[in-house]
Amino acid sequence: MEIWLNPACSKCRTAVAELDAAGVEYTVRRYLDEPPTASELGEVVARLGLEPWDVARAKEAREEGIDLPKDAAHRGDWLAALAAHPRAIQRPIITAADGTTVVGRDEDSLRRVLDAEG
């Protein structure tokens, strides 16, 4: 299991506490220090069943100057912009060993990824 997090984020700290309480092993990726590539983001949003703009934090995207149309023609532009400005990416993103991926901001999402981990 891998968790992309920002340690200053309360939702990320909650997710880590839940993973610890469940006793699962995981790898932490501080995505602000080690930003994902556009390709990695593309894989993650595909596993989430979302589009890149769906995992963008609206306020941070605006602050970073990300103002792109939300359509298939600009999908690659969104991925590149989020890779260049990782603070605009929703957090935490958690991927279980079987590929199940969630934005772990709520109890249901955390449960889904923990159930996938077994």
TrEMBL record:
Source organism, top-level taxon: Bacteria
Signal peptide positions on this chain: none
Gene3D superfamilies from the UniProt entry: Glutaredoxin
Protein name in UniProt: Arsenate reductase family protein
Family, per entry: Belongs to the ArsC family.
Biological source species: Nocardioides aquiterrae
Record Pfam families: ArsC
Classification via SUPFAM superfamilies: Thioredoxin-like (SSF52833)
